[in-house]
Specification:
about 230 residues, alpha+beta, Translation Initiation Factor IF3, Alpha-Beta Plaits, elongated
């Protein structure tokens, strides 16, 4: 019985000693930011066009949208979209709900490697008869998903190499062992600026402004926390 009590006292004292040692051990926390950036040449021009048609009869709206769709297909320029919707043009007027004519819309997205191809699209939409109107919603340079992924991986690798280099530098200066506690990535993207070169229009040919191709700037940063033994 006496040996059993002594064994319990020994275990308690030993564990208390370990706990005290663990609590007394301290770490130095070092926080800093690492940032890297890359410039990439854009691959293609994004062009988004909406088609709108109005008529008293729904079938006339359908025919107008179908005509625009056929003309776009005849350019043989690849696109995404083409979905359409038709609705009644209803609104309140002097406490009365009025439905007047039908409105139809369709949307098209083009990825153009050559900016001049936008003129082909616009010219065919300008062909008479033209029972519809069209709108250019946006026009901007961008890069492919594969290229964007490559840039992201390259920025990640550059940041991680820099973190490891700084960790080794800190260990050398403090003459101690350190480890990376946390890496929080912050992504920021600077969109391209488009300088538009004015082009004159004439009756037979549509010449849209040509956006100059400029490099896209990709920026990636990370908040770093390193812990070192004292």
């Amino acid at each position: 019985m006496r040996l059993f009590i002594l064994a319990i006292i020994f275990v308690l004292v030993f564990n208390t000693s370990l706990l005290a040692k663990k609590e007394s051990s301290k770490e130095t926390k070092i926080c800093f930011r690492v940032k890297k950036e890359l410039f990439a040449e854009p691959d293609f021009l994004l062009l988004n066009i909406s088609i709108e048609a109005k008529a008293d009869e729904e079938k006339d709206v359908l025919n107008a949208l179908a005509l625009a769709d056929k003309r776009i297909k005849n350019t043989q320029i690849k696109y995404e979209g083409g979905k359409y919707n038709i609705r009644k043009n209803c609104f309140w007027k002097r406490n009365e709900w009025i439905c007047k004519e039908f409105i139809g819309n369709a949307n098209y997205n083009f990825k153009l490697k050559s900016p001049e191809k936008q003129n082909i699209i616009l010219e065919t939409l300008e062909t008479d008869p033209k029972p519809y109107t069209y709108f250019i919603n946006y026009l901007r340079w961008t890069i492919s998903k594969n290229k964007e992924k490559y840039i992201e991986d390259k920025l990640f690798s550059a940041i991680f190499d820099e973190v490891l280099r700084k960790k080794e530098l800190i260990e050398s200066k403090l003459n101690t062992k350190c480890y990376i506690k946390k890496i929080d990535f912050i992504k920021r993207y600077y969109p391209v600026r488009m300088n538009m070169i004015a082009e004159k229009l004439n009756k037979s040919v549509v010449e849209a402004p040509m956006p100059q191709k400029e490099k896209l700037n990709f920026y990636k940063a990370a908040e770093i926390e390193i812990r070192c033994e004292e």
